Amino acid sequence: MQRAMPSETPPTPENADGPSSDTGSPRDFVAALASGLLVIEAFDQDRPRLSISEVAQRAGLTRAAARRHLITLTRLGYAHQTGRQFALSAKVLRFGQSYMHSARLPRLLQPQLTRMALAMQEASSAGVLDGHDVISVAAATAGRVVSATLQPGTRVPAWCTANGRVLLAALPNEDLDAFIARQAMLPLTPQTLTQRDRLRLEIERVRVRGYALVDQELEPGLRTLAVPLRNFRGEVVAAINVSAHAGRMSTAELLDRCLPMLLEVQAHLRQFL
């Protein structure tokens, strides 16, 4: 039987690697690698130690597959086992460090965050949207520890944080509505906004104003003001904020003192993003 000719043109030296944005065909997808990453993501702050069955359930894998991945991670030093439970090791931090050291965004933002923190004597951080959360990619303080959630690499819920709301405001309405519908919206403090219709209205206000102000919804005493960062095409790529303790600065003072500099940094960075 005659063999069918390949439907794709063989890569030439010029295009052998393909375009940088190419995600490849389904046959290029490495399922084993994807499963291994799901195993790592199964661990979090609330569940630092998991059994094989728990990892399998959280990662959507069979118990046998979860066991193989955990054994591999343990032998490579990315996890360790105590009895029937597994936990990630500090070696996993290398993944985050690789991003921080190689990505352009944190290196571009860090000097501006430091400048803001020193000028206002408050904490400043930058974050990007990742699923339901905002991940901090850069941060600076003026010696005052406002919140541990502002440190690079930490994750916070997007729906109840200032950085998160300016990032959500940039989503198309369909995506925003789907995001809000998926949130449990459990109160984290007495001030946390927990009604979906009110959250939708607040995000509309963020779109109109161009900034988000969140008053003690994530943590008691933590007030945060954020603005989006846009690239030269007008696309929102990140958010930056200034945070202060409620006992030290009112919401009106936070706006008066910090919004002008946030907008200045926003305008300055746009030409580089």
Automatic annotation (TrEMBL):
Keyword Cytoplasm among record annotations: no
Domain HTH iclR-type intervals: 30-90
Pfam families, A to Z: HTH_IclR (PF09339), IclR_C (PF01614)
InterPro entries in UniProt: GAF-like_dom_sf, HTH_MetabolicPath_Reg, PcaR_PcaU, Tscrpt_reg_IclR_C, Tscrpt_reg_IclR_N, WH-like_DNA-bd_sf, WH_DNA-bd_sf
Keywords attached to this entry: DNA-binding, Transcription, Transcription regulation
Organism superkingdom: Bacteria
Gene Ontology biological process terms from the UniProt entry: 3,4-dihydroxybenzoate metabolic process; negative regulation of DNA-templated transcription; positive regulation of DNA-templated transcription
Start and end residues of each IclR-ED domain: 91-273
Region (Disordered): 1-26
A molecular-function term among this protein's GO annotations: DNA binding
Transmembrane segment boundaries: none
PANTHER family: HELIX-TURN-HELIX TRANSCRIPTIONAL REGULATOR, ICLR FAMILY, TRANSCRIPTIONAL REGULATOR
Name of this protein: IclR family transcriptional regulator
